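User:
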Amino acid sequence: MAAGSSLDLPPTFPRPPLCSPMAGQASDGLPFPAFPPFPPSWEVRQAYLQWWLICFLGAVGAMKAVGLLRHDLSQLAGLVEGVGAIVFLPRWPIIAERLGKGGYERSFRFGCWLVLIGLGIIVSTHKRKSPICWSQALCTLELLRCRSGTSAVGVGSAVYLVGTVLGLVVQYQMAIGPFAAGVGHAKAE
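Assistant: Predicted structure:
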C-alpha cells in the first residue's frame, strides 16, 4: 500500500491475529462447556460460534430428526446436523480421546463437516431459499476458517457440496422433490 494510506497502521500498533485464544481459557480458544468470555469481541468469535452452532443446530437438528419441523429430507438432515452439533462439535472427552492423537481437533472438524453435510442436504430441497440454512453454513465455514485457516473453508465448501449431492441422490431414489413423478418428466403414454 502507498505510504500515508488510510489503512496503514502505525508501526508501533500491533496487528491482532484473526482469532486469538482466550486468556484464562483453554489455549485453543474453544472453551465449551465453559462459557465464552464476556464481553464478546471479534478476536474470540470462535468460542461464540461454537456455542451458537452447538445450541442452535443441536436443538433444530433434534427437532427435525423427531419430525417436528417436517419438509423433504428434514429427518435425515436433522439427524446428521444433530449428531454433528451435539456429539462431535463440543469435543466431548469420551469421544475425542477415542479418536486417537489429535482427537479433540478431529472431533471438532468431524462435527463441523457433519453440520455442513446436514445443511447441504437441506439446500438440495425446496428449502434452499432459507436464509437460516445459508447463515448457519456461513457460521460453520467461518468457525473452520478461524480455527484452521482459509484452506479449511475450501474443504468445508466441498463437504457442503457433498451434502447437497447426497440430498439430490436421496430425492432421486425416493422420487420426491424435483424428482417426484410427473414433475419435469415427459408423461408416459
